[in-house]
Amino acid sequence: MNRSLLVMVLLCATVSGFAKRKIDLIDQFRYPKPPIEVFIDEESKELTLDLKKGEENIRVVITDFSGNSICNDDVRVDGTCILPLPMIEKGEYVLYIFLDEIELQGFFEINNC
């Protein structure tokens, strides 16, 4: 009984630990590494923008696969910025990040809401 309970607790901790997922970004010029990393947290419905250097004004656009706009925000990022997405629901999405002359695109899926 205790062993089963321990396994269940560890399984729950493992599943909740992976709620935050990295979104792979691609760009039109194939830079070796984009200057920003983006993570989505399904549970808190937040997008984390992690700028590697400096401070930038960034436009964040999220659409569903039908092209409906979910988010279209300009944010000032100095290091790390968290963007709440309370309107996001279960489904597949396209993320666009515009900074300087770079346009990045990524895809992510929300499985639970």
- What is the subunit arrangement here? single chain
Low-confidence stretches: 12-17
Per DSSP, the total helix count is 1
Q: Assess the beta-strand content as a share of residues.
A: over 45%
Helix content: 10-25%
Question: What brief labels describe this structure?
Answer:
mainly beta, 113 residues
Q: What's the gist of this structure?
A:
The chain is mainly β. Helices cover 14% and strands 58% of the residues.
Descriptive notes:
With 113 residues, the chain is mainly beta. Helices cover 14% and strands 58% of the residues. It has one helix and seven strands; from the N terminus they run αβββββββ. Strands 1, 2, 3, 4, 5, 6 and 7 form a seven-stranded antiparallel beta sheet that branches. A hairpin with a 2-residue loop joins strand 6 (91-99) and strand 7 (102-110). The radius of gyration is 16 Å and the shape is globular. The chain starts with a helix and ends with a strand. The model is unreliable at 12-17 (pLDDT under 50).
Strand-helix topology:
Blueprint: H1 2-17, E1 20-23, E2 25-27, E3 36-41, E4 46-64, E5 69-84, E6 91-99, E7 102-110
Antiparallel strand pairs: 1-3, 2-7, 3-4, 4-5, 4-6, 6-7
